[in-house]
Amino acid sequence: MTKDSSHLRSVVALVDDGSNPFELACLTEVLGIDRPEVGGLLYDFRMCAREPKVSMRQSFFAMTEIAGLSALEQADTVIVPNRPDTATPHHPDVLDAIARAHDRGARMIGMCSGAFTLAEAGVLDGRRVTVHWQWAEEFRARYPQVDVEDDVLFVDDGDILTSAGSAAALDLALHVVRRDHGAEIGAAVARRLVFPGHRPGGQRQFIERPLPKEVESPFAAALFWAEQRATEPITVADIASRAAMSPATLHRRFRRELGCTPNQWLTAVRVEHARRLLEQTDLPVEQIAHRSGLGTAANLRDRIAGHTGLTPTAYRRTFSA
Length: 321
What we know:
With 321 residues, the protein is α/β, with parallel strands linked by helices. The protein has three domains: 5-185, 3-Layer(aba) Sandwich (Rossmann fold), CATH 3.40.50.880; 218-260; 264-319, Homeodomain-like (Arc Repressor Mutant, subunit A, Orthogonal Bundle). It is built from 13 helices and ten strands.
């Protein structure tokens, strides 16, 4: 049954004239459409623009009858997709609407070069952000007061979230779902999208592929084996042995094909399992740490806080089934 959208968090995407439609499609797919696999809509999702008709990149098509900037006045989350021309100042009406939304406490999300719009609106001073690697130097030169991390997929800085270009829009959108609705719903949406569930935000942008090149290769088989046993005390050496390569070669393969280290990947899998145990069971933290492969309660607390900003107790209270 579809949920009543009047009780959902309001998410409004501010559409730019000439924007690439891919990232908007990613946001709409994850945050906007009815998702029967999780019981219906997750958000009250809308788009708005300064004008009621907006032409997409290279005039492939136009969006019409879009809501005006007043839609931002009640939004819980404001999304600013990529903008085609970062050098041209944005219209003051758009910047004022963004600044007002931020001042009243709305969460701000910048997709790729949308970070330029947020910075121009004055909401990023002293904050951590990321942009697509090709825009990083220009962004630093124009906004030295903003801390740019240009080698990651996305940055979650609390009420300011930013992503690198293109496919990273999916990574950040799924991160938002996990942050708002918990690990189980996030995993269900990722499965529905046939998208890898363990791409941590700190994974670097410029990689050959986000998944192993050959799905039937020993490397891919070793990843599947490790994921099924991540809650056990397996090590990087165990994964390397399963893949029939040395630990050093495994490390290089992870960096080249997944953009992270074996330990980062294994930790992300274990944290996801711990989050599900917190959501679905009443087990004490010590047992969850042991069952998830994270070892100690202290390590579990550090990892959960690092991924969610919450203590295990607060996470369970928020997302418990």
